[in-house]
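Entry 14. Structure prediction run on the chain below.
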Amino acid sequence: MEGNFANFLILMTVAVSMVWLFKRLHLPAILAYLVCGIIVGDDVLALFDHLEEIEVVAELGVVFLLFSLGLEFSLPKMLAMRHWVFGVGLGQTLLTAVVFALIALALGLHTNAAVVIGGMAALSSTAIVIKQTAEMGILNAPRSQLAVSVLLFQDLAVVPLLILVPLLADGSDQSMWLAIGMALLKGVLVVAILMSVGKWILPGVFTEVARTRTDELFVLSTILVALIAGGLTYSFGLSMALGAFLAGMMLGESQYRHQLEADIRPFRDILMGLFFITVGMRLDLTLLIHQFHWAALGLGGLLLLKILLLRAAAWLGKAPKLDSWAAAITLCQMGEFSFVIAALAVNEQVLTQAQASLMISIGVMSMAITPLLISRSLGISRWLVKDAIPQVSTVPEMAHGHGNYHDHVLIFGFGRVGQSVSRLLRTEAIPYVAVDADPVRVHESRSAGQPVYFGDVTQKDILLAVGADKAKLALLTFDEHQHAINVIKSVASVNPELPIVVRTRHDHHLQEYYQAGATQVVPEILEGSLMLVSQVLHLSGVPMSRILRRVRKERKNHYGNMHGFFPGETTELNYQTYDNLEFMHAVILTPDAFAVGRSIEELQLERMRINIRGLRRNNIEIAVPDPQAPLLKGDVVVIAGKPRRVERAERVLLEGF
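Output returned:
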């Protein structure tokens, strides 16, 4: 017991260190987990004798990941993607499996081994692709949707592959086809069960759970549903991940979708990290060193052939060229289920240990470079496709828009905010052009006669196509922090003089937007508070001219007097927003407090970037305290600043350090 605890402690220490190091180097966390797995694996620290014990827990990460993905997909959306799932996905899987099986046969492998190797090569990594595209904020982009469609079919294809491996060892053709037919029948049955339960039972269950207003019960119910769905499909011989995806897809139609996703995320991310660690532990460094030339050759062949074969399948499925190349580059690695097939093939003596180890080495190496390939996939695709601009836009005339627009307003993001702004611009006869990344919204808007185009506004060619170099204003309406930063920089590179107005829901990233080049940032919460105050002052009898002056002053001062708030139990905090919030805190000076008898000037709180918002003495508020007057016992000092600075300032006031 003590030994296992110590090993897990070492594992966690290495994982934390690697993730910290890779984040400092601006590299994906997935790579950090893979390196961690190599370090704790058999060839370095050899912490664990039985890898399968960890894998059982690690596989839950894939289950929760697919459950989260299912929440993003509605049934109508899945039906709309059926041509990609069963067209491009089927074509890619069959083409890749056949080509790699023929290559294996040409290299002298037995037919059964060649079939298994073809099946392994046909699969791609659902976990890495979805996690990386989600982190980059491109999961809903058409190229990512095409990739996800192919991945969904591959997950379905895992089932017959897992059935096929033992039958290859048995060698009976009749039993093989019978088993595959039974698997398909089971698949249809379990999908029907899950979809029925998800549509008619689960919404009622979560409604009842929500009425209890108990967060713990909601979290437990979410985890239980994901596990039951995965367990049901597993009991039918299907993938656990497929069951979790179907359950998530059904719940994605309910009003609890966002809460479900928030509840599952911490468990998903931790277990996904553990899953990638187990992938790294599978890498045989000794074999890789001795057969590195074969592994490198296999890696190059795998990447190149999978890209070409998926592009061919996409061409047959009539998918857009640019999206097809990008999806092919995204899916050119080997998948996590390939390792499961390899282990099963070794147990059934269809593959030798050396053959399986070489394939696993190639697979891990392909996974390691996948984050880099995904981040560069669009750029490489645009280089391969010379007519990339017409392909990105859903309307042909956009490619020729450059030069036709002048002195207009650009609206990036045509959701509710963007549409509201466009209506007011239209009433004032101010020309505008909008760009949005939702193809359905673009189609609906264009059908109604709106000048809306589909595209990625981080691309300079798109900005030039809508006349960013001749516009008089750009408005960013979407509330995606990193994407907005990238857009601001792209716009500034095309037209440095163009004023950029950014809408954001909160004020967490106000300064970052200004530093990136935004002219004006409008935080909805603060602006809403400002409008509310204006109404209160007006109804209280304050002259409108004075109200307008105060409003203009606050906006000019970047809402300086409105930042900061007293936190409470219901304050929403997370890792990303904690250091961007500004808290207010009242510090009561006890008789032994360090600050008693010292002035505000002596304490030098401004060096800690702390503002004094007020002072209460004998229940009398002093709005602007004298910085040179000594503080007295019983004084209440109201300080404001970032949370960690507030904590440090309180220690200085009370203890002196």
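The mean pLDDT is 80.
Filed with the rest of this week's runs.
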